Amino acid sequence: MVVFALFIISKSGGLIYNREFHAGLQKLNSNDLLMLAGSFHGMHAITKSLCPNPPVPPPPSSTNAASLAPSPFTHRATGLEVLETSQFRMQCFQTLTGIKFLLFTEPQQPNIDTMMKKIYELYADFVMKNPFYTVEMPIRCEKFDRGLDGFVKLRG
Amino acid sequence: MVLYSFYIFDRHTECIYSRRWTPMRPASSSSKTPRPTSGSSITSNGGVTAAQRSKHADDEKLIFGLVFSLRNMVQKLGGQDDTFLSYRTGEYKLHYYETATRMKFVMLTDTKLNNLRPYLHQIWANLYVEYVVKNPLAPVEHPGGIGVANELFERALELFVTTVLPS
Known about the structure:
CATH topology of chain B: Beta-Lactamase
Protein name (chain A): Trafficking protein particle complex subunit
Oligomer: heterodimer
Organism (chain A): Bimuria novae-zelandiae CBS 107.79
Shape of chain A: globular
Number of strands of chain A: 5
Number of domains of chain A: 1
Distance between the termini of chain A: 6 Å
Keywords (chain A): Endoplasmic reticulum, ER-Golgi transport, Golgi apparatus, Transport
Distance between the termini of chain B: 5 Å
CATH topology of chain A: Beta-Lactamase
Subunit structure (chain A): Part of the multisubunit transport protein particle (TRAPP) complex.
Strand content of chain A: 15-25%
Main location (chain A): endoplasmic reticulum
Low-confidence stretches of chain A: none
């Protein structure tokens, strides 16, 4: 199994983290990567608005406790989740706060969802809990890097 | 299998054919307006209003722009010989096929289907070439979709989606 790269795009469309694990994708300079992240941010929004069957919110008549605090997130179209091409497969995971994790793998890669979950966990542990990290800024956390490395090597 | 829509774009970025199988979604991304119930959408389905038509045209442009930029992004990342095949969201899946003449075939379906690229290729080879390109009365280019939506093509496409496509 091969994981090519991981990108993290902030909620305003800036590339805040990019990491290549395996060669396979084209080498791009940081300017191109930033442009790519920005345009993907826009494309993601368009895929959301193109949805031919918008998810219908459940009737508000249900009386359980959960309906007292309606979440604005659950009935929204999700936007692009998996992109398939002849040479790679890109999984996009958007958190509730709008941060997007893009994971580039081989086309026939199983269990991307669990990997994504694990990466999100690493992000929560080593980036969000890092007192020196400011949100929306590029991620420079050694522990996060090391955690990713260990995780990807362990699975590889 | 649920089929939502099908589009053909020519090399001049124009949508020369579009076909929808479901009533259009009521309001676009702006979820401010309350969504009509299923009953009202059936009644409004009878006549295509001008607003709906412009909505369709907007969708065509959006889809073209989207697949165009996705294709460019894929080529930038994966190299010149990489091709964009499809993408999936939580609600629908978009399948893409591009011919050597840069015509683009796009189909929107539900998420359960595998890649439809071979079927889109068949639509091009067996239906489009057969009934549009080989039609002596059809122009070489199809500005505004002239000559594409002829009776034979429409009927063959209808037959194709009901019989050949995996259910």
